[in-house]
Write a structure and sequence with these properties.
Radius of gyration: 18 Å
Keywords: Disulfide bond, Endoplasmic reticulum, Glycoprotein, Golgi apparatus, Hydrolase, Lysosome, Secreted, Signal
GO molecular function: palmitoyl-(protein) hydrolase activity
EC number: 3.1.2.2, 3.1.2.22
Enzyme class: hydrolase
Pfam families: Palm_thioest
Strand content: 5-15%
Order of helices and strands: EEEHEHHEHEHHHHHEEEHHEH
Strand order of the largest sheet: 4-3-5-6-7-10
Length: 323
């Protein structure tokens, strides 16, 4: 189970001069903690736009003006009148950030499902965009909570087959990452670690597939590893599009192929298999094969490290799924 985990810090660089993310197409978005901090505010949508729900990633919160707030402004500028909801898991930004490390993922998903069901502006449906771990959390929302309906799901650097390594993560100065690595290496599938460490709930050990399938509280469930929940499958297949973005120079996600639903072949951690080669696809446990045949799966790639992309790339490749 020991997996070498390095201790680098992920930082998004910016190459634009406009601090509000407005003008330069070469502008790079800032990543704090491996996930963009986006959209804490919201605006009233009009009848011509589809609302957008965003879930930030590990170490982020809903409301950092240097990342999530910048993305919000960018989306609102490009899609006038859109209603954007950035999910805050907890009552404060501090709680939101901490919960990205320590709150049971299934409880987070239930919290979000309840919030979305009570938002009258989402009644007619919404698009969803997840950053890093927020991507697989939103997929769980799509599978478990079909009301209100999710239309398009955009996964930006999400890990849909989990991770087997944590080479880079935020929070080094507070020693959070060191502690997480120790917990994952010492017993990711123990009850106490599974229940109280978010990253353990999508830790996928290919060297002990049976242990993963038996004890993973979150990922094994939403990936239908134990039993096939036909409701999960039906709900996911109701999406119009499931867009997955892979970062070709990613130094945070291990393996990076998980961003396209690929992973290591079972029993070893060297050779990879694509989604199309995996049992989840060949057995079509989630309906992904049928979705792919129907043109509902979209695989996008961009050069850059985890969550690094330009405004121009975002506008050209992701905005069409938000209009």
């Amino acid at each position: 189970m020991n997996r070498k985990l390095s201790q680098d810090v992920n930082v998004f660089t910016s190459s634009g001069s406009d601090s509000s993310m407005g003008s330069s197409a070469a502008l790079r978005l800032i990543s704090v903690s491996g996930c963009l901090l986006l959209l804490c505010g919201s605006s009233w949508g009009n009848n011509a736009t589809v609302p957008l729900v965003i879930w930030h990633g590990m170490g982020d919160s809903c409301c950092n003006p240097l990342s999530m707030g910048a993305i919000q402004k960018m989306v609102e500028k490009e899609v006038p009148g859109i209603y954007v909801l950035s999910l805050m898991i907890g009552k404060t930004v501090i709680q939101d950030t901490e919960n990205g490390f320590f709150m049971d993922v299934n409880e987070q998903v239930s919290f979000v499902c309840n919030q979305l069901s009570q938002d009258p502006k989402l009644k007619g449906g919404y698009n969803a965009m997840g950053f890093s771990q927020g991507s697989q959390f939103l997929r769980a929302v799509a599978q478990r909570c079909p009301d209100p309906p999710m239309k398009n799901l955009i996964s930006v650097g999400g890990q849909h087959q989990g991770v087997f390594g944590l080479p880079r993560c935020p929070g080094e100065s507070s020693h959070i990452c060191d502690w997480i690595r120790k917990m994952l290496n010492s017993g990711a599938y123990t009850d106490i670690v599974q229940k109280h460490l978010v990253q353990a709930q999508y830790w996928h050990d290919p060297l002990d597939d049976d242990l993963y399938k038996k004890h993973s509280l979150f990922l094994a469930d939403i990936n239908q590893e134990r039993v096939v929940n036909e409701t999960y499958k039906k709900n996911l297949m109701s999406l119009n599009k499931f867009v997955m973005v892979k970062f070709l120079q990613d130094t945070m996600v291990d393996p990076v192929d998980s961003e396209w639903f690929g992973f290591y072949k079972p029993g070893q951690d060297k050779e990879l298999e694509t989604l199309q080669e995996s049992a989840i696809y060949t057995e079509d446990r989630l309906g992904l094969a049928e979705m792919n045949s129907a043109g509902k799966l979209v695989f996008l790639a961009t050069n850059g490290d985890h969550l690094q992309f330009t405004q121009e790339w975002f506008n050209d490749n992701l905005l069409p799924y938000l209009r």
